[in-house]
Amino acid sequence: xxxxxxxxxxxxxxxxxxxxxxxxxxxxxxxxxxxxxxxxxxxxxxxxxxxxxxxxxxxxxxxxxxxxxxxxxxxxxxxxxxxxxxxxxxxxxxxxxxxxxxxxxxxxxxxxxxxxxxxxxxxxxxxxxxxxxxxxxxxxxxxxxxxxxxxxxxxxxxxxxxxxxxxxxxxxxxxxxxxxxxxxxxxxxxxxxxxxxxxxxxxxxxxxxxxxxxxxxxxxxxxxxxxxxxxxxxxxxxxxxxxxxxxxxxxxxxxxxxxxxxxxxxxxxxxxxxxxxxxxxxxxxxxxxxxxxxxxxxxxxxxxxxxxxxxxxxxxxxxxxxxxxxxxxxxxxxxxxxxxxxxxxxxxxxxxxxxxxxxxxxxxxxxxxxxxxxxxxxxxxxxxxxxxxxxxxx
Length: 394
Description:
Elements: E1 16-23, E2 26-33, E3 42-46, H1 59-65, E4 69-73, H2 97-110, E5 118-122, H3 125-135, E6 143-146, H4 173-182, E7 188-190, H5 191-195, H6 199-205, H7 211-221, H8 239-242, E8 250-252, H9 257-261, H10 268-273, H11 279-292, H12 295-304, E9 325-330, H13 342-350, E10 354-360, H14 367-370, H15 372-386
Helix pairs in contact: 2-3, 7-11
């Protein structure tokens, strides 16, 4: 596992790559800009799967130009950050959300800050950012979630005295859903279930079409470039409702993710027209995942699907996020609706100071890559409107 940094040719002007050592047991690789002037307010950007800190490359200079010290880490399990075990059989507890909060806290502290002025989490980075704001609002004084709504922490059963219930009730909701999906015609499988399997890493690391073709198709099919993305709210978390989503979300049972996206391989002309992920930029992803594989990045999905590993989150049962918050999605991103009901729970219960739900035209799942200028405008307007931006090191 390498601990080297990117060369300057890989990055936009003004963005640098460096290692921050000794952060909650990790050596964290970050991309940053706006570091030249001491005391700039800190903007922390947390990526998702199968992204990297590099996914923020278009946004970082825009926020730095607005006066922020912008930092995007490779999260635990990803890229050039080291200190985690790259093995399917490794303990999963280090990849739990509470420990990922500690990763973020440790990084903020290592950088010499007492709080962030802006915290943004995308995809898998969204629940990490949400729990950061839930657990430590004194440090994370505002939060922006992208593509993955936060429905709130898991709750304890309420007012159950006098009701006969088993002393231990296994959480078998996911098993029931998996069985129902498998009974569809054709049989289907939730992508998170697939990503939790032992085979998923090797499937994606060594796909039959090659890593380059797989990643190009995966980024393409989840973007606004693919005309098949027509997301809409789903009524219930049932097999028939979920099956309305594209196959990269609700896969055909038995197919790998590379097999699933292969039919949607973009043409040469479509690749040339893709200005948000050029061939040299895609080459960075290919180099990183060819070196590390995907297992570290997949561990979080295994945690999310294991109720025992999420039991600690019940510490926050009944708690709400009480700092200014915003949700941003892409108009062509199914992520907004992939967990039926989560968007409404976030808006009505999970957050008490929600500025709104904004969908950006011309963006699919990769909002910060597809529409960085529009995203930066919304982020900066949100921080200005909240009046909570920290313009000092604190």
